[in-house]
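Hi everyone, sorry if this is the wrong subforum. Our group has a chain we'd like a structural model of before ordering constructs, and none of us has done structure prediction before. Sequence below.
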Amino acid sequence: MTKYVAILKGGWSMEREVSLLSGSAVASALQKTGYKVVEIDVTPDIAAVLKELKPDVVFNALHGRWGEDGCLQGILETLQIPYTHSGVKASALAMDKVLSKKIFSLVGIPCAEDKTMTVDELFNADAFGIDPMPRPFVVKPYNEGSSVGVVIVHEEMIFSRNDTGPWQDMLGSDILMIERYLKGRELTVAVVDGKALSVTELRPKDGFYDYEAKYSEGMTDHIIPAEIDSDMILILKSLAEQAHHALGCKGVTRSDFRLDDSEGGDNIPYILEINTQPGMTALSLVPEQAQSLGQSFEELVSWMTEDASCHR
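Answer:
Right subforum, don't worry. Here is the predicted structure as tokens:
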């Protein structure tokens, strides 16, 4: 019997536009594979919508808060609808950068030093010329994905609430994570069904790998496999698998790392975060790694759909 798949996309997080692209790409792939598909631009009445549609499976293509942080997963488990990706607990932990880093540290995954503070505390400290840690450092909302609101604070930067640039995405966040800036290579590892696929190096053509660099075609070069030592490839894949299992993740995840293997660097791969619902767009990294190993996009999303379950 043909499975009826509801693809949840859009929503109202800061990653809405990317989610719409992911959902449309997944819908097209599943239709080609023979599934019956309905695409849903998610609104707060999603429980009622799903009760009426009665899909066999939900493919969760939402990104960011509410759709990726355990809230929607709880609704799906209450409705007893099989769904893709990680469950309630793992999703909530992964979205909380502070808690997830504590867990990673406990299992021996290297993490950069960090501290938490409110937006007011950060601006007030700067007003008195007091930095939370030596510059350069990174400021990020503790519970956003896709590098939303991430700012690298350099020596010459002056904080201003009236700045229409880098601070605006984080001003709605209650808690910020302040993290030591890590120089070096930007590396990412996809994990599917608990096993790492490959290691991609990301080389932004301008600045760092921020939201624009992630989702604008031509702004970042993807090198697969990364041009690094073969032993380090194995270490990174092992760390990504450890991160996946430490939080209890399911299905597909992607872990991001920084590695300074230059002369004078410490050659330690530090984890930045784990993404429990990686992008599924034409520029997305997980499908790209799968493709490099001979698995088509259609095969990947079909596997994810078949892997769906009520309790993740």
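For your construct planning: The radius of gyration is 19 Å. The chain has a mean pLDDT of 89.
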